Amino acid sequence: xxxxxxxxxxxxxxxxxxxxxxxxxxxxxxxxxxxxxxxxxxxxxxxxxxxxxxxxxxxxxxxxxxxxxxxxxxxxxxxxxxxxxxxxxxxxxxxxxxxxxxxxxxxxxxxxxxxxxxxxxxxxxxxxxxxxxxxxxxxxxxxxxxxxxxxxxxxxxxxxxxxxxxxxxxxxxxxxxxxxxxxxxxxxxxxxxxxxxxxxxxxxxxxxxxxxxxxxxxxxxxxxxxxxxxxxxxxxxxxxxxxxxxxxxxxxxxxxxxxxxxxxxxxxxxxxxxxxxxxxxxxxxxxxxxxxxxxxxxxxxxxxxxxxxxxxxxxxxxxxxxxxxxxxxxxxxxxxxxxxxxxxxxxxxxxxxxxxxxxxxxxxxxxxxxxxxxxxxxxxxxxxxxxxxxxxxxxxxxxxxxxxxxxxxxxxxxxxxxxxxxxxxxxxxxxxxxxxxxxxxxxxxxxxxxxxxxxxxxxxxxxxxxxxxxxxxxxxxxxxxxxxxxxxxxxxxxxx
Length: 496
Hints:
Elements (H helix, E strand, L loop, with lengths): L1 H26 L11 H7 L15 H8 L3 E8 L3 E2 L12 E3 L7 E2 L3 E9 L5 E4 L1 H4 L4 E5 L5 E10 L4 E6 L21 E6 L7 E12 L9 E4 L11 E3 L5 E9 L6 E5 H14 L5 E2 L2 E4 L3 H7 L7 E6 L4 H5 L6 E5 L2 E2 L3 H9 L6 E8 L2 E8 L1 E2 L18 E3 L4 E5 L2 H6 L9 E6 L4 H4 L7 E5 L2 E2 L3 H8 L7 E8 L4 E8 L2
Antiparallel strand pairs: 1-5, 1-7, 2-4, 3-14, 5-6, 6-9, 7-8, 8-9, 10-11, 10-13, 11-12, 12-15, 13-14, 14-15, 16-23, 17-18, 18-19, 19-20, 19-21, 21-22, 24-25, 25-26, 26-27, 27-28, 27-29, 29-30
C-alpha cells in the first residue's frame, strides 16, 4: 500500500504540475518580442548631419540668440519737418516690395518719428542699419539691450544700396556681432532674424534662404537675399544671421502683398563700402555711362552674334565716359582689363568697385571685330527716379499684325512733354494688344521704337516695311527709347 500510494501521489503531482504549466502558458498574453539593435547596427544606420565647410554650426538658434541679442539695438529716428522718400523701384510690379516703415515716394508734413533696428559691429560703437531708417532725420537715438539710451551720430550712408553707418559713444566696450560671408550662402540654408517688429523689441524669428540675388529697386546694384523668416515693419536694419552665429545680411524690405517674404542686403556688399563710409561718409563708384543687357538666345539669333557671353550696350549717355571713349549701341563688352565678363551684372559690379578717375580697358566685339576701348571712369551719379508717361493718344496709328502693337509718328507735343532727346527719330508705340508678341516682350505704350534688327524706323512706312514679311518663329530685335527712365533698350520679339 505504501508503495502504491507513493506511486499514485507522484503521478498526480506530475499531472497537476503539467496542467498548471499549460494553463499559465496559454492564459497569459506575452508582450511582443523587442530586440534592441546591436551597437554595430546602430552605427551603420545613424549618420551625422553634414556641416558647412566654412565653419562649425552652433548648437541651436537659442544659443545664437543669447550671444547676438546684446549686439542688436533699437533705433529711434526723428525729424522736425517734411521728409521726402526718394528710393523706389525702377519699375513698378504688382507686388512691389516696401521699405520697412516707409512706403516709397511719399511726402510727410510736420515732425516724424520712426523706429528701426541696427546691430553693433565693433566694440567702439559702430552700428550698421539701413539708409532709409536715418534718411532726412535730425536726431538718432539708440537703445541698447542693457536699457541704456545713447545719442548716435551719422557717420555715412549709401542710398544706392540702402546701407548706413552710425556711431554711439560708450564708456565701456560694447558687445558686437561677427560678420560672415554672404557669398557662401545657399538657397535652403537656415537663418535667423533679430529686430524690433511693430515695436516688439528683440523679436527672434527663423526661416530659410529663399533666393539669392533678387533685384528690387536698382537693377544694376541690387543683390538682395530673399528669406521667409518672419520680418515686419521695424525689423529694418536688423541682422540676418546664419547657423554659425554670423551676420550675413541687413534686413531691408518686405513684400507688400505676401507674408513671410523679406529681403536683406548681403553683408559683403556692406563690407565693401564700409571703408568709404568711415572715411568720407558716402560712396564713390566708377561709372561708364552705358545701359546694358544680357544676351539671350533670341537676341543672339536676331543680331547674329558670335557669342552669348558679355554685356550688350543698349544706350550711351551723352557726355559720359563711354560716349567720349566711342562706345556705341550694339557693342558687346566681353572683358575688362583681360578679365572675362559673362553677364552685364558682372561688368557693372566690376566698374562700380573701381575708383572714379581710373582707367579701364574694355574688350569689345563690334560688328564681328574685336577691339580694345580704353575708358576713364567718372563718378556714378545718383539714381534718378523714373516718371510714368500718361496716356498716349492714338490718332493715325498703324497696327502691325505680326507684332500686335500700333504705332504713330512723333509729334512736337509728345517730344516736349516727355523731353525726348533732340534729333530722336522713331515712331511712338500707341497701343499693345494683350498676349501679343509685343506684349510678351514688355513693349509698352509710350515707348519710342527706333530700330528693328538694326534697321532705322524713322516713319510708319519704315515700320510697315520692316514688319511686313515677318514670319512665325522669326525673332526681331526692337531697339526702343523709354521716356520714363529715360534710356534706350533692346527687346526681342518672337513672332507667333
